[in-house]
Request: fold
Amino acid sequence: MKTLTILGSTGSIGRSTLDVVRKSRHLYDIFALVAGRNVEELAAQILEFRPRVAVVADGEALSRLREALRVSGLQRSKWPELAFGGKARVDAAVASGVTFVMAAIVGVAGLEATHAAVHAGKTIGLANKELLVASGGLLTAACARSGSELIPVDSEHNGAHQCLRAGRQDEVARLLLTASGGPFWKTPLEQLRQVTPEQALNHPTWKMGKRISLDSATMMNKGFEVIEACWLFGFSPSEVDVVIHPQSKVHAMVEYVDGSVLAQIATTDMRMPIQYALTYPDRTAAAVPRLSWDESRTWEFHPPDLGKFPLLRLAYEAQEAGGSAPCTLNAADEVAVEAFLSGKIGFLEIARIVAETLDRMESRTAGTVEEVLEIDRRSRQVARSIVDGEKGAVRATVAANPVAAG
Reply:
């Protein structure tokens, strides 16, 4: 039986992880559920899975969780240990007896807990690509020292992980990551100027959170995955290619030096890669839909348009540059995405703000988690100042030409 801590239990990956556990309760014991402020969802999870520890973001969320548990009727003696904040997240991740940590907290908020779990030698189900984007060197070096293993949960990297089991690293020619293309891969560049947040969030294949859906629309998400693949599998950026595959059935392909190409193919259901990570190196039956091979189908593959999706190009350049450039890339993108979703900037301005932030930030090598977080904080400051400048420029244009603006 594996003992789990789930970082981000109320998010989509956390909920899917618990669904996998629900269907194989005899294989898993939930030690800790770590969430943010969705205390209603967390309270329901506590009632069902009875963890020994539950952690929320802050004191206010903790008070609401206590009230939710009181209203639920669960006897006080059966409540888990309740805590909040960063230290509590770390404690839940490194606790004695925990064998597997699902790292599914969005953004860099989960960096300290995941890094601590790696140092403690835990097996990590890595569902948060930002951790390797922001601190890939630190995490992989810590894994080498502690013997901790990172098992990717992203469908593309999980697929690559499976394909790479077929040969040695020196037998690989290149890795191909597939991309759905998001909602705009066929949309002419000029029409992207009028894109609304609602259109950008309408992903054709996956049901995801707002940021990852928006990053898919700009293809920044695939850029992050290129960076993540470099750290996970020891590739250079030039050895990782991206192909648009709108049907989202082929998740990754590995081309070997003899010309053979191995593909990992599965339905678009995150429970499959989650279960693979939980059971690795073994395989067990998964309660997910199977592909039907008794009907005809067509699968397409297209090269990405880097002119229309410049953020993918910027991701390659950031990984080539090294140092803190990928960390700045991630931070600036998050700020720009927030600005777009709140109506402060247009869709095409996301890439320009990220590019300008990279130009303004001096790249350096971070030696500690604290330094990574400081680079992240400073990058966000710079990106916000650029966004504020954009807002000022828009206001000036409106004031100068109110008729045209209307």
Observations:
- The chain has three domains: 2-152, 154-321, 322-406.
- The chain is about 50% helix and 15% strand.
- The CA atoms of residues 253 and 263 lie 4 Å apart.
- Residues 393-406 have pLDDT under 50 and may be disordered.
